[in-house]
């Protein structure tokens, strides 16, 4: 089975209770939005806080500069998701 690695950071780790997951792909290529359907806990957090508030990188490239939620994911890719920065 083909898979991709999804890694989350900082407060996302606390909310989700995991820091990295290997996710099996149903097809050779999938959209990022379809991949999220396999990670319902992550999808809910992203929806609750607004996708636009997170930095989502596919192989080190911001998916906003690609095709956003329609960005294609394929075997061996890795996704890094950073929560909104806080501070004061």
Automatic annotation (TrEMBL):
SUPFAM superfamilies: MoaD/ThiS. Signal peptide: none annotated. InterPro entries: Beta-grasp_dom_sf (IPR012675), Mopterin_synth/thiamin_S_b (IPR016155), Sulfur_Carrier/Prot_Modifier (IPR052045), ThiS/MoaD-like (IPR003749). Pfam families: ThiS (PF02597). It comes from the Archaea. This is MoaD/ThiS family protein. It comes from Candidatus Methanodesulfokora washburnensis.
